[in-house]
Amino acid sequence: MTNRARTPTIGLVSAVLAAALTLAAMVAVGVRFREQATVMTPSIVVFFVAIVIGEMSRITLPGSRHTAPMATAAALALAMTVGSAQGASAEFQGPTVVVVTALAMAVGVIPNVVRRRRVRLPDLAIRLIGIAVAAMLFREVPIWDGHTVLDLHDDWQPYILALMMLLISALALTVEMLLMAWLRAGRSHAPLLRTIQDEFRAALALSAALGVTGALVALAERPLGPVAIPLFLFPLFLTQFAVRRQSAIRRTYGQTIRTLSRLTEPGGYTEVGHASRVAALSMAMGHELGMSERDMLDLEYAALLHDIGQVSLTEPIPGGATVLAAPADQRRIAHDGAEIVRQTGVLDNVAAILEAQTTPFRQVREFGEVLPLSSRIIKVCNAFDDLAGDSPDSAKRDAAVERIHLGLGYEYDPRVVDALVRALAHSEK
Amino acid sequence: MQYGDEQRAHARTLRALAAAVETKDLYTRGHSERVALLCELMAGSLALSYQETEALRFTGMLHDIGKLAIPTRVLRRAEGLSDADLATIATHPARGVEMVRDIEFLRGSIEAIRHHHERMDGRGYPSRLRGEDIPLFARVVAVADAFDSLTTSRSHRDANTAEEAMAELHRRAGAQFDPSIVAALERSLTRHVWEPTRLEPGLMATAGRAFDHDDPAASDLMAESVSIESSMSVPAGSEPNRADPLWAKETAP
């Protein structure tokens, strides 16, 4: 399982890389400190505090992306600050930025650990690497005749410096997004290209805002001094509330759908946990098949609600197993379910998926019918769960897969069945 | 999507799924929607806030959702319901609570769903609460529920007019219903005309004389049923007390 092996590796590589980076930076700071005393400017202290606060007030974007907008913007500004006009110039080097950021992030994470919120080390490491890239590009990499951007900025027009800062932020954040996509590809077994697309779609807008804010704070810090840092980060702090509220609504909606998916359980229409198992397996297969996050959300809701049509039955089907019901009954249940979901007026895609969830795959081959991929996935998952249930018994699971194989090409899409086999292999390991 | 749009989408989703319940029980078609409307009208008379009105409306819409857990053959049985059948029907408030208690959005409705068949004289189910011990929303839904049942036609009787139904509610005020809530309904009806619901003859023929648990007469019948009392004492006691702190469980990311 090469895919499987990738999961811990990327996380590990990022974490080790970030740790090594911090360590090297610490050594570098130590060495330079002896050569020429680094001035501990008040700005560094304010940056440190801003990063700590930013990390403490972390937010979660859709797709369970942990991000700390204020911390990232503050750290970017720190990486690109050129020193204030009021005497104390920012004569610190790249390594100082890395050390300050790493320490601030570590401090900021503590409350999250104490409150038992989930902390993903690889994600933190990747954010640190992004900041390191910006710091190195701005302060260490000679771009012209052996001089760094920091050395040259005094000779430039201010707008060139601003453009340079935006460019460096963009590069740093791109590196961060690419690494995140790579990490997520490993976690979900999805194709890399797909996760890169998803990552950019989900994070690009926020990243752009962060890059601009970072450059803005770095520029404003020169004339205004440390007070520029809280002043220009404050709007970002307010935005976080809006983002948080938005994702809370989305979470509540998901919660409602999940609860409603269990409506059929107390009446004995479906087995306990059937809907959520089908949803989990469908999602794993969706990743395998490289579906986009947007499609995956519809897939998740449809998988959760796929048996909702059973509420209109007079008598429950034994065990709720639609795979054993007559095709006409299956179609009626699917149709009733789609009707119920369509009434919500906001889940039309989900309704379309439900409508087609019983259609045999041969309709596609013989009549060229267009069948949503999600419907094909749910058909296979539902059959698997009806046959195998939540039994951990591998013989029973193998038998279920074998039975599905018998319907290959006629009932089920072979590509989807392959994805089922792969998803099951991943979950067993 | 905007914040308001999301809220509306959420509300519509709940409503559509509440409507799904009614496919099981022919008599209740449109019932949830009408009870929700009555609740909204009464909220005006009771001077409730916007949030309270919303919560009350959802209570009205979802009060019978637990019927999904009751076998359809019991719900549609025309005659000769045994005490055991009555006991099964009497579990629907608790089953409803079980179904929706994880939805944060409905936090304000849960207790009212559980107690919407309590009576002022303490002979209701599931907990035999008495008077003011019954949550306010539950008392409101109880009145709306009975009023809609009375003003809907049945195969054996025509729909009562709003006045006739009001008279029946007044007769039962104090014993079954909270008099102040009945008065609130009466005030609401001076401002709104309530048209009795006449079901299509075809639908009524199919439904026949199916038991209508919302009919006030059914409340008396169930109050006298011994088996409900004995069967209720078990679920009511064993029901885990979902005190508010527990709700936080689902909200953690």
Compact description:
The complex is a heterodimer of chains A (429) and B (253). With 429 residues, chain A is an all-alpha fold.
Verbal overview:
The complex is a heterodimer of chains A (429) and B (253). The model of chain A is unreliable at 1-7 (pLDDT under 50). Chain A has 17 helices and two strands. In chain A, strands 1-2 form a two-stranded antiparallel sheet. The radius of gyration of chain A is 27 Å and the shape is elongated. In chain A, helix 7 (158-188) packs antiparallel against helix 8, helix 10 crosses helix 17 and helix 15 (373-388) packs across helix 16 (394-406). Chain A folds into two domains: 2-243; 253-428, Orthogonal Bundle (Hypothetical protein af1432), CATH 1.10.3210. Chain A has helices spanning 2-35, 42-56, 69-80, 94-114, 121-139, 149-152, 158-188, 192-224, 228-261, 274-288, 293-304, 327-342, 348-355, 362-367, 373-388, 394-406, 414-428, and strands at 59-61, 65-67. With 429 residues, chain A is mostly helical. Chain B is an all-alpha fold. Chain B has a single domain, classed as Hypothetical protein af1432, CATH 1.10.3210.10. Chain B is 57% helix and 0% strand. Chain B has 14 helices and no strands. In chain B, helix 2 runs antiparallel to helix 3 (50-62), helix 8 crosses helix 9 and helix 9 (162-172) packs antiparallel against helix 10. Chain B is globular and about 45 Å long. Mean pLDDT of chain B is 80; it is low at 233-253. The chains are: A mainly alpha (429), B mainly alpha (253). The interface between A and B is large, with 37 and 37 residues.
Keywords:
A: 429 residues; mainly alpha; two-stranded antiparallel ribbon; B: mainly alpha; Hypothetical protein af1432; 14 helices; globular
Mean pLDDT of chain B: 80
| Computed CA radius of gyration of chain B, to the nearest angstrom | 18 Å
What's the oligomerization state? heterodimer
Helix/strand structural class of chain A: mainly alpha
Number of domains of chain A: 2
CATH architecture of chain B: Orthogonal Bundle
- CATH top level class name of chain B: Mainly Alpha
Find the biggest chain interface.
Answer: A-B, 37 and 37 residues
Mean pLDDT over the full residue set of chain A: 84
CATH fold naming of chain B:
Hypothetical protein af1432
Poorly predicted tracts of residues of chain B: 233-253
User: What percent of residues of chain A adopt helix (DSSP H or I)?
Assistant: over 70%
Q: What structural class do helix, strand and pairing data of chain B support?
A: mainly alpha
CATH superfamily heading of chain B: Hypothetical protein af1432
Give the % helix of chain B: 55-70%
